[in-house]
Amino acid sequence: MIRCREIVRADLAAVTDLLTRGFEGRSRDYWMEGLRRTSVREVPEGFPRFGYMLDHEGTPVGVLLLIYTAREDGGETCIRCNVSSWYVEPAFRNYASMLTKVAQRHEHVTYINISPAHWTWPTIEAQGFRAYCGGLFFSFPALSRSAKGMRVEVVQQDAQAIGGLSKADVALLARHAAYGCLSLACRAADGRGFPFVLQPMRKRRIALPAMQLIYCHDVADYVACAGAIGRFLLRRGRISVALDANGGMKDLVGVYRERRGRKYFKGPQCPRLADLSDTELVIYGP
């Protein structure tokens, strides 16, 4: 008998074993750490903490991890769900649609898929997802002009208040610093603050020591602060910052690539570029 049900804490060891078998190159410790972080983060009421699994006589044979986040948008609370890692044992693939049907049943939720393998794009689009990000722009920010008086400060996980930033910004930066990201506050000469979260990119075919832009208020903020950020990173051995894009960027030096960075959404709100906060990239890791 096969049934689809919510993952609970008692399932985590068995689910970790399943994910380790399903994803080559990912260690058991990788999954355990991500699930540990998921177990203590805030989750909107009424939504699953970990996701769903296919249960065969008490044993997980399929899993779909979900990351729900509540966000404020125009004075209203909106729900975003990162559809994360999916795996079903070969003998039970006929039941795989049960996972996606249950996981995507809320019409008021915006679902995002930020790491689809290119061979899955047609399947994702057949499920009603639309691309909102076409690729990654690999910028070389140290080649940008630095605004006069711009300062860059590292934000630690115990940060409480930072000049020029809201309480929500500081909380986001501190939370992501606790996830192991590089949280930065750029402050202009006039006192304005700009929050940024970056993360080292996983080494696959990327030869450059690159960082990925996880969060900023707007891509225009990164363009304005790129010179200061680039020099800050250069002193730490990083020469490139990859950011979500839909083509080349005339105000930055770099190159656009489509193969890796496509991202999809389904639901009422199209996500904006340069906001991958509280997603699998930071909770589970690149």
From TrEMBL:
Task: State the source organism's domain of life.
Answer: Bacteria
UniProt protein name: Acyl-CoA acyltransferase
Q: What SUPFAM superfamilies does this protein map onto?
A: Acyl-CoA N-acyltransferases (Nat) (SSF55729)
List the source organism.
Bradyrhizobium algeriense
Its taxonomic placement starts with: Bacteria, Pseudomonadati, Pseudomonadota, Alphaproteobacteria, Hyphomicrobiales
